[in-house]
Amino acid sequence: MTLVLGIETSCDETSAAVLQQTAGGEVVTRSLVILSQDIHRVFGGVVPEIASRAHLTALVPVVRQALHEAGASTDTIDAIAVTYTPGLVGALLVGVNYAKGLSLSTGIPVVPVHHMEGHLFAVTLEDANVEPPFTALLVSGGHTLLVDVPTWGTYEILGSTRDDAAGEAFDKVAKLLGLPYPGGRHVETLAQTGDPTRFVFSRPMVHRNTPPTDAAYFDVSFSGLKTAVLNAVRKSDDLERDKAHIARGFQDALVDTLAEKTYRAARARNRHQVVLGGGVACNQTLTRAVRARLESFGASVSAPTPRLATDNAAMIARAGLFRYNLGERAPLDLSAYASAPLPGQV
Length: 346
Ligand code: KG4
Ligand code: ZN
Known about the structure:
- With 346 residues, the chain is α/β, with parallel strands linked by helices.
- The protein folds into two domains: 2-120 and 311-325, Nucleotidyltransferase, domain 5 (2-Layer Sandwich); 132-303, 2-Layer Sandwich (Nucleotidyltransferase, domain 5).
- Helix content is 40%, strand content 19%.
- The chain has helices at 48-70, 89-106, 115-121, 166-176, 184-191, 223-235, 239-268, 284-295, 306-309, 313-325; strands spanning 2-8, 13-21, 27-36, 79-85, 110-114, 134-139, 144-151, 154-160, 273-277, 300-302.
- It is globular and about 60 Å long.
- It starts with a strand and ends in a 21-residue tail after the last helix.
- The structure holds 5'-O-[(R)-(carboxyoxy)(hydroxy)phosphoryl]adenosine and zinc ion (ZN).
């Protein structure tokens, strides 16, 4: 049996989790504690310095709580999996330095985890049948990645965003519409009452005649869509009346684009399984659209539930367990990085 303590502090969630792998290979989430830093709401976005300080205050009790809920202790933990990239460096450093300190005092090895590999593994915590090969669409506040996954640990990035991440686009549009931060779920709720015919924005980068050899075939771009929303907001003489329709038009354009790109990626590599991950995967309109588009191709689509789609330490512990079983260990000079390629990127 292997017990992994996961630690996540890359942005504004302080999270710790304990995962157990039985001798038979089954993985069980023994505990998951997530403390979301509410304070950023009043600033309309994450303030890095405040995030770091809040992690510093919260991390020790959050780890203690996770160990307590799992009935585990540092005497029984085999590995400490910690996010070391990508994210806010000051925030990441709190988790990385804590993990190294705990390792030095207990002898438990540290396993460095790439946050996006964590998002990739998230759905397996709820559906153990999800195994490569598959196409993954990772959509978070900072990243939009279309990845072909022939095996765990081998990642071919087919497409990514050329400007804003999908979650970032949701958050910026939410701000334009006067909704709270983070705005993704508020835009989704508002869009439910919107008329899809009132504001029809063009779908970015889905030209039918782009060949698969062109990077534009898989890449996305949301800054033009965001500007179109800004213009619609400026032109509106009654934003209260129009905002649900604008939210609907924006979400439909973004979701259609992601569904089309995911379909292209699955078809290009002949994958019949699609995995979604990241905070934007909470969006039901997105998951429905991806399912509908991929159905024609006979592909199944799996998405984590919101608690595991958004930032959490269970997914970090899961990716860490995979790396631990490969024999990977962090050196004591492990640092934090704002960005880095996925390990195993081909
Ligand atoms: O993965 P995540 O928790 O953090 C990052 O790694 O960035 O993703 C957070 C992002 C935010 O931009 C948030 O607005 C978005 O996920 N999000 C949503 C929804 N729920 C969260 N976007 C659209 N629809 C949602 N229901
Ligand atoms: Zn994330």
